[in-house]
Amino acid sequence: MLEFQDGLLARLHLDHGAATADPHAGSRYFYDLHLIMRLVRGSWPFAAQFAPPHIDLDTIDDHVGRLRHETTTNRAAGEPARNQALRGGPPHDPHTCAHLLAFAGHLRAQSDALGALVSSVDGGTPWTRHLETFLRRCSAAVQTVAGSVVQEQLPNNHTGRRGTARPRRAQPRGPG
After folding, report:
1. Which residues of 42-59 are buried (b: 16+ CB within 10 A; e: fewer)?
2. Could you give the CA distance from residue 37 to residue 34 in angstroms, rounded to a whole number?
3. Beta-strand (E) ranges in the chain?
């Protein structure tokens, strides 16, 4: 965990030139971690099989359980509820956040495991469109792994800039 923390601190202290020169060091790395963290939570408990031994799986399990309970409670109350496991930010608890981010850092280098996580998450079309937009900020490696799965999950229509379906052209009518 300390090694992972040192790597994060080093990336945070890079100057702009170094961050731009090294695609693994700049902001794309942090977008990768954020996205993978969401994928871990959205695919839980499936993701647990890919965890290295130093990750506290019970802590992550409790965190995901709370998020799912919150989403279910909001829906039952008739309130608009988004899937917090897929859309929420990092956990507020530092212990949980550390383990979830370290797990994401581990998965970032595991393209097979990352592909399996992306494939296992079924958040529906709104999540897939959100993922597609988020991927544009991620590293090329993560885009490669997740991009093909995202394209398979999207409906066959094309999207415009705002994520809405483009209007279809009217079919030319024959004479009369």
Report:
1. bbbeebeebbeeebbbeb
2. 5
3. none
